Amino acid sequence: MSNTIEKSIEIKASRSRVWKALTDSKEFGAWFGINIEGPFKVGKVSSGKITIEGFTHVPWNSTIKAMEEPSYFAYTWHPYAVDPDVDYSGEPETLVEFWLEESDGQTSVRVRETGFDNLPPHRIADALRANTHGWGAQLENIKKHVEN
């Protein structure tokens, strides 16, 4: 089993429009399903609450690692940290990276999440399974958000 998730999607919009949807914390929250407290800032923790039905008990915490306009955005987080009785803060985080490329009026969005092999062994398979499905859904969400 690979310890990396990589997915991509084509969006009928300019790279600058997709960049805004990805890096503006309010827009990111709208398509990702999070009520984020404050703007994204490199080196800072982004916090909020998940708004997706069934996960509203889950806090959002990520550290913004890079915002290289207009093509690269990255953050770290605790993947599939959904059990309210577990303190995940001592676990390693995975790295989520986005690359944007524009061609012929469309933007290709590629996301890659790495670092699952650093998680506690009992969490690796569930986190990989959940996030593999999750990234497919989230790419469709950003596409709908930007194209509508």
TrEMBL record:
Residues 12-147 form the Activator of Hsp90 ATPase homologue 1/2-like C-terminal domain. Belongs to the AHA1 family. Keywords: Methyltransferase, Transferase. This is Vanillate O-demethylase oxidoreductase VanB. It comes from the Bacteria. It holds the Pfam family AHSA1. InterPro entries: ASHA1/2-like_C, START-like_dom_sf. One of its GO terms (molecular function) is methyltransferase activity. GO terms for biological process: methylation. The keyword Thylakoid does not apply. The keyword Coiled coil does not apply.
